[in-house]
Amino acid sequence: MNLERLFMMQKQLDERIETKRQLKGENLVSKKILALLVEIGELANETRCFKFWSSKPPAPREKVIEEYVDGLHFILSLGIDLKFADHVHLIDVQESKPLVEQFLCVFQAVHQFERALSLESYQSLLDTYLQLAHALCFTLDEVEQAYIAKNEVNHERQNQNY
């Protein structure tokens, strides 16, 4: 995964949205954190990993990875806003917790980040989110390709006044 490329693509999308919506200079960190939490919840809902009361299967893999990269968009955007983009690195994820536990770790990482807004808490959030990709059986290459595809969709949505 080329993290630098993804940050660049996210920056272009953010600038487009902020210009179009007249949000230049506005602090959107809290709104982006809430949006991230919502996206993580939507992702968990698609996996159905916590729905012990239901026998309905998870959404198709393509839908799950699309939901995953929706969250990644906001993580990248937060890194740009707080000027962390040039200071983070990818970890080599070799293992992760079981899916429900990993989701809980991601929620906890978001809350820790929200309290600290530090580079360390941001790196931890990114690492934990990448571990979630591993728990979902997604490779970093799959995540990157899905991010690129969804970024194009997001630009098209802006063309259509989404």
From TrEMBL:
InterPro entries for the chain: dUTPase/dCTP_pyrophosphatase (IPR014871), UCP030140 (IPR016947)
Determine the domain of life of the protein's source.
Bacteria
Pfam families to which the protein is assigned, alphabetical: dUTPase_2
By what name is this protein known? Dimeric dUTPase (All-alpha-NTP-PPase superfamily)
Organism of origin is Thermolongibacillus altinsuensis
